[in-house]
Structures are given as C-alpha cells and as structure tokens.
Amino acid sequence: MLVVRDENWFRGIYAETYRPVLAFARRRVDSTTADEVVAETFLTAWRRREEVPDGSERLWLFGVARNMVRNATRSSRRRELLHQRLRIVHPPEVVDPVTPSADSRVSMLRTALDSLREADREVLMLVAWEELSHGEIGQVLGISANASAIRVHRARKRLAAQLHRSDGATAGESNVRELPHSRQAPPDGQATAPAARRAMRGTCSERN
How far is it, in rounded angstroms, from Cα 148 to Cα 126? Predict the structure, then answer.
C-alpha cells in the first residue's frame, strides 16, 4: 500500500513519536537544547519524509536526534573552552566544596558511565533508557544487529572494568547488573533497573 507523505501523515508521526524523541533528547542534553534538537529533528523528518522507513519511524527519528545532539554537544564544548579561557583571565572566587549526599552505588555507576567513551555510553543509554533491542539499536546507529550486540557487550565489560577499579570486582559486577540487557522485543511500560536510570539521569544532567 502506497503511503502518502502529506501533512496528515506528518501529524500522525509527530503525535506518535514526539514524547519518545523529546525524552531521548532530554536524557542527553539540557531541556532548552533538547527542545531545539526535537524541533530540528522533526523539521528534518518533514524535509526528508520520503526517506522515513514505514514501521520504523521512531528509530529513524532517534538516529536523526542523535546526530543533532552530537552537533549541539560539540557547540557546547566549544563554548566551555571559551569560558575556561575567560576564567583564566578572571578566576572565580574559591568556595568550599559541598560533599554530595547521593547514594554511593548510584554515584559510582554515574562516575563510571561518565568515564566511558561516547560510543559506549550511547549504546548503554539506548539499552537502559530507550529499552531497545539489538536490532533496534542497530537501526538507530546504522549498523547490523550483530554489530550492535557486540558493542553493547563490550560497553558493559568496559563499564564493569571501571567499576572494578573503583569498588572491587564483586561490587563492580553487581552495579553492572543494574543495567538491563537489550531485549529482543521490548514490551511497553516495563521499567528498567532504577539505579541505572538514576545514574543515567545524573550523568546526562551533570554533563550540561
């Protein structure tokens, strides 16, 4: 059946995918930047509507949003470098640091996630936050399901290694188990591990 990519089609896609795409963006950048990412993502979807695959619209939009987030992050890093140079010229007043009161396991997991490469962090977030299967992750990243599974496996091992260095082998393995494994067919409404979600949320918000 031929799908007519008109305004009605776009409205339907927008209504169905707006919230997941917004959540995807807000887990990676601040809320203002996330709104800009979402706007650019749907603008791209309209301009390239003939390229949007039937039945995989949400995953295609995740892929576009991912590229928008990366562009926004690069711009943010350039601004931060400028601010650092300005701080050298006009250093701020030194204040006593405040000791964080966050749960130690969540804090360790968050620190370990933040120390990973961007590619490793991304696949773990797609598993824990978007609850995607290996095949779906592959569609977002533009790789095969097998390559996706390998990336997830290696990212989990690197995360375990980071946790091992900070807290010992047993605790490290326990914290990694807080991150759910990628599912073949993720059911709607099923919650992922709460500690992983809290750690992911903290990592994303503190990075901005």
Answer: 11
Round to whole Å and give the CA distance between 37 and 42: 9
Angle between helices 145-167 and 104-115 (to 10 degrees): 130
CA dihedral for 133, 136, 138, 141, sign (positive or negative): negative
Contact predicate 148/139, CB 8 Å: no
List alpha helices for 48-193, DSSP H: 57-89, 104-115, 118-128, 134-141, 145-167, 169-176
Percent of the chain with pLDDT over 90: 44
Q: Considering the entire predicted model, what is its pTM?
A: 0.65
User: 50-54, 59-63, 104-108, 204-208: lowest mean pLDDT where?
Assistant: 204-208
Which pLDDT belongs to residue 11? Answer: 95
Q: Which residues contact 29 (CB under 8 A, 6 or more apart)?
A: 37, 69, 72, 73, 76, 204, 208
Whether the CB-CB separation of 131 and 190 falls below 8 Å is answered with yes
Count CB neighbours of 188 within 10 A.
5
Q: What are the tens digits of pLDDT across the range 142-153? A: 999 999 999 999
